[in-house]
Write a structure and sequence with these properties.
The protein is α/β, with parallel strands linked by helices. It has 2 domains: 194 residues, Rossmann fold; 169 residues, Glycogen Phosphorylase B (Rossmann fold, 3-Layer(aba) Sandwich), CATH 3.40.50.2000. The protein is built from 14 helices and 13 strands. The strands form 2 sheets. A 7-stranded parallel β-sheet has the order 3-2-1-4-5-6-7, sandwiched between helices. It is globular. The termini are close together. The mean pLDDT is 93.
Length: 377
């Protein structure tokens, strides 16, 4: 088969966090394991050179089109049709409505369905956002109904699709877990920015409302009264959502030494942040999978996590859970990990075992198998 991959979100610096990492590792795995099919990778200008071809069965094509817009709907179908593809795989829900090629789609979450819009999600007029949300639902529904096969990253997401879109055949929904990335570990404290002093609590990721960073700040305000020398480090995109969290920090009277923001970290800095963290916190109201806490476990860091959505499925008994709606409950869990060395050691060992369940190689091989059994022959 000649298969297209919409790789425009390739790399966390372009595609953003976990989704960019998923596309990056998927493309890498396909080049490593595929010896049969021909692949065409569609990339943006920002990641075209970064994506290296290591397999002669692979080609790159420039697709300078941003996702979620009108141009995506108008131009992507033309680019796809030009390549005479048998199948195209979209690693996200943003499938052109009139896609001319049979396609697979990966659905990472239904967060915009399960956590409907609020005025805090955007600075745009509510009417604009209402139209945008309607467009999202229309494109998502079309992708689910017309896809040859649907890949979900957890059983939780699979069940969510079955719940919210009951007319979509459950037989074509396949749960294939993601893998985790093992960064080049560093043990040098000098790798940390000068603003950070150990010990510190860590969160890495976006600051979208469902990530519940405002709730984490409220919990930290309680926690810091008892442990004033332990900072909270928040690291992610330098965007509007983090700017809002910084405003909340100031309103709450938390100093820049207590809550430290590290914008747009590269992989080396991420590795350093993980290496020296005392604890990792995942306070989300919703997650489709949740890569950062697994990455933290690979560094032997105890993880405290929300007990909502997919996180208990992915992290199992290797994390200590809290109710994300209750800042005091979050603070209590953080305090218990500070005082209980034995518990931290147990979570560390359980974490090492838990991460063995997730492999990018296994994921890629399973998807390649699905191309064979569920694709266009």
């Amino acid at each position: 088969m000649r298969i297209g991959i919409d790789a425009r979100m390739y790399g966390p610096m372009v595609g953003g966090g976990g989704l960019g990492r998923y596309v990056e590792q998927f493309v890498y795995g396909l080049q490593k394991h595929n010896q049969k099919h021909r692949f065409v990778l569609f990339l943006k200008k920002e990641n075209f050179d970064h994506c290296k071809i290591t397999n002669p069965l692979f080609e790159k094509r420039l697709a300078p089109i941003h996702w979620y817009g009108i141009q995506e709907q108008k131009i992507m179908p033309k680019l796809l049709k030009k390549e005479h593809l048998d199948l195209v795989h979209f690693p996200h829900w943003n499938v052109p409505f009139f896609c001319p090629i049979p396609f697979f789609v990966t659905i990472h979450d239904l967060i915009l369905i399960e956590h409907p819009y609020s005025s805090k999600v955007t600075t745009r007029h509510p009417i604009y956002f209402a139209f945008k949300y309607l467009g999202y639902r229309l494109i998502l529904k079309n992708a689910l109904q017309k896809s040859q096969q649907i890949i979900t990253v957890t059983d939780y997401v699979k069940k969510s699709i079955e719940k919210h879109f009951p007319r979509v055949s459950a037989k074509k929904i396949h749960r294939i877990y993601e893998g985790i990335t093992y960064f080049n570990k560093t043990t040098s404290i000098k790798m940390l920015p000068h603003s950070i002093q150990t010990p510190y609590l860590l969160y890495i990721g976006n600051a979208y409302p469902h990530k519940n960073l405002k709730g984490l700040l409220n919990a930290y305000a309680i926690f810091s009264k008892k442990y004033p020398d332990i900072a909270l480090v928040l690291s992610g995109p330098n965007d509007l959502f983090y700017a809002r969290i910084q405003e909340e920090q100031k309103k709450m009277g938390l100093t820049s030494k207590q809550v430290i923001f590290i914008p747009s970290p590269d992989d080396q800095l991420v590795a350093s942040l993980f290496t020296h963290a005392l604890m990792y916190i995942q306070p989300s109201f919703a997650e489709g999978f949740g890569l950062p806490p697994l990455e933290a476990m690979s560094y032997g860091i105890p993880v405290a996590a929300s007990n909502k959505t997919s996180l208990p499925e992915v992290l199992a008994d290797a994390a200590l859970y809290f109710d994300p709606d209750d800042p005091r409950a979050i603070a209590d869990v953080l305090s218990s990990l500070i005082t209980n060395t034995s518990l931290r050691d147990k979570l560390k060992e359980k974490g090492y075992n838990q991460i063995k369940k997730y492999s990018w190689d296994t994921m890629t091989k399973n998807i390649l198998d699905l191309y064979e059994t569920g694709g266009v022959k």
